[in-house]
Amino acid sequence: MTEPALACSRCQAALPWTVLNTAPRSRCPSCGTELQAVVFPALFQDLPEGRAAATLLVDGQSSCYYHPQKAAVVACEECGRFLCSLCDLELGERHLCPSCLESGQRKGRIESLERRKVLYDSVAFWLSLVPMLGLWFATFITAPAALFVAVRHWGDPPNGVLPRTRVRNVLAIVFASAQIVAWCVGLYSVLI
Amino acid sequence: MSTLASSQQPYIRVPGRSWLTVAGRHSLWLGDDHALSVWNHYVTEEYKRFYFRDVQAIWLSRTSRRRSIGLVFGGLAVFFLPIAWLTRTSPVVVFPAFPAAVFAILFLVNWARGPSCECWLKTAVQTERLVCLRRMKTAQKALQLLRRRIEAVQGRLTQGDLQARAGAPGGGSPAPVSEAAAAG
C-alpha cells in the first residue's frame, strides 16, 4: 500500500490514510499537530494520455489544416480551420487551433489563460497619491502622468479578472487635477 | 468582436484575506468551475486557477503563529503599561498609554481571531499554499465551500473508500460516486 503524497506542513511526515477525510479534525501521527485533510477522487486518477491523430483512409475525407495526412475531427471555433485530434486544443468547452490559442493568449483575449494584469486604475491612483507623501516636487511630473493614465484607460473594459469599480480612477483624476492646479497657481504667483 | 473574448465571470470571494504587506495581498475567489488565487501587488494582479476537476487534496494544519504574535503584542503592551502607570499624573502619559492601548487591542484581536493555520491545495502538478487562509475558523469555512464545489464535480470520497483503497494492495481508483451522493 502506498501512502498518499500529502505531508504534514510542520514535520513533513507523510500523512497516512487514517487521518484523511475525517470529521472534523485529526492529528498528525508524527508530531501531533492538529490538522484537517480532505482528498478527492482526482488523487487516484492517472493523467490522461495524449491522443493520436487518425490517418486519412478515404479520398475526399476532410484533413487537418496542419497535418494533411491526418483526418480532421473538429473545426477551430475561432478561425474555422479543420483540425486533427493532435491539433485540437480544448479550452473549457471550446476547440481551438494552436495558432489561435497562442495569439489569444498573447493578446490577452482568453480570460482563462490570463495570469497577470496591470491595473491601470491603481497605477493612476498611486501615481497621484504617493508623491504627495514627501516627494511633493515630483508631482510636477507625476500629476500629469496620473491624469493621462486615468483618462486614457477610463473606457477600458473592466481592468483585471475580478470586478472593480472606477473609484481609483476618479480619485486619481481628483488628486492629479488638484496638484496641477496647485502648480499653476504657484507658478503664476511666482512669475507674475 | 472575437469569440475568444469572454464575458466577465462572476467570482465569489472566499472568506479570508492575507495582511496587506509590501508584497501585496492574497485572496481566493470561486468561479463556476475553478478557484482563483489572486496576488494583488498594488498595480498588478497575478492569477492562478485551480479547476475543481483537478484538485486532489486540500489540507490545513494548525500553526503556532497566533502564540508568537500574541507574545509580541502582549509583551509590548506589558512593556508600555508600567511606564503609563508611572507617568499617569503627567501630561506625557499619552506617549506610553497610547501604544500600550494599541498593542493591547492588537493582542486581543489576535486572540479573538482564533488559532492560526496553514492551508495547502494540491493538484497533479503543483502544491500551492493558500496564503489568505491563516486562521482555523476562516480556513474551515473556506474548506467547506471549496469541498462542496469540488465534490459536486468529482464526487465524494469517504473514509470507507479510503480504507478500502488502503486494503487493496494494488491500489486502484475509488468507486465512482453517484451524482446524487455528490450533490448531497
SSE blueprint:
The complex is a heterodimer of chains A (192) and B (184).
Chain A lengths: L25 E2 L6 E6 L34 E2 L6 E2 L5 E3 L2 E3 L1 H9 L9 E3 L1 H10 L9 H14 L14 H25 L1
Antiparallel strand pairs in A: 1-2, 3-4, 5-6
Chain B lengths: L11 E6 L7 E6 L3 E7 L3 E8 L5 E7 L1 H22 L7 H19 L3 E7 L4 E3 L6 H19 L4 H9 L11 H5 L1
Antiparallel strand pairs in B: 1-2, 2-3, 3-4, 5-6, 6-7
Distinctive features:
heterodimer, A: 192 residues, alpha+beta, Herpes Virus-1, 3 domains, two-stranded antiparallel ribbon, two-stranded antiparallel sheet, 4 helices, flat, B: 184 residues, 4-stranded antiparallel sheet, 3-stranded antiparallel sheet, 7 strands, 24% strand, elongated, disordered C terminus
Describe, in short, the structure shown.
The complex is a heterodimer of chains A (192) and B (184). Chain A is an alpha+beta fold and 192 residues long.
Description:
The complex is a heterodimer of chains A (192) and B (184). Chain A folds into 3 domains: 1-45, no CATH class; 48-115, Herpes Virus-1, CATH 3.30.40; 120-187, no CATH class. Chain A is 30% helix and 11% strand. Chain A has 4 helices and 7 strands; from the N terminus they run ββββββαβααα. In chain A, the strands form 3 sheets. A two-stranded antiparallel ribbon of chain A has the order 1-2. A two-stranded antiparallel ribbon of chain A has the order 3-4. In chain A, a hairpin with a 2-residue loop joins strand 5 (89-91) and strand 6 (94-96). The longest helix of chain A has 25 residues, at 167-191. The termini of chain A are far apart. Chain B contains 5 helices and 7 strands; from the N terminus they run βββββααββααα. The radius of gyration of chain B is 23 Å and the shape is elongated. At the A-B interface, strand 2, strand 7 and helix 2 of A face strand 3, strand 4, strand 5, strand 6 and helix 3 of B.
